[in-house]
Write a structure and sequence with these properties.
mainly alpha, Arc Repressor Mutant, subunit A, Tetracycline Repressor, domain 2, about 210 residues
Amino acid sequence: MEEAPHSDKSGDTVERILCAAAEVFAESGFPGARVDEIARRAGVNKAMLYYHVGDKKDLYEAVIRSIIVETAERLEEEIRQAGTPEDKMRIYMRRFAATLDENPLMPPIMMRELASGGTTLPRSALEGVARVISLIGGILDEGVAKGVFRPINPFLVHMMVAGAFIVYKVAAPVRERAEFIPEEVRRMPRELAGSVLGDVEEMVLRAIRK
């Protein structure tokens, strides 16, 4: 007698659901996303989807929270172990870039949120962003106290970094197929890690140094 196939573990099912949800939210935004389509891509029925994660609002919050809150937590730990204010600022930019490289569906989701005024952005995501901005504020205050940074609003610094990284990621397909754009620009990598990250780091540090 053949052994019955093992059913997916709960964690694997949730992971499939969240991956499918991220794809659909990136393509259609929260208003246009359909739970039927998320369930179809995840290979589960709607009842199982609701059981493991919840409704569309719960799905959206789980997708965004898992990235933003985890990033804030990792940043807090990495910054605690860093040395100078400049080292800490580089860690912030590198962690943010790594998060977007590891989660390529996040930039289009965030662009849709920004374009709609953030009306469907979960509170937990806003709290995660606030934690990141608070961390930046602490780094800047330390830099000012040590005479290496000039006073500057941490929100503006975050917008400088987030704006550069998110737009760069989202614009990649347009950049690659636009024939009138110089070849060296069209051939730039999609990943932020490497020369792109290094250039942004230097631009930001030049802007905030005293």
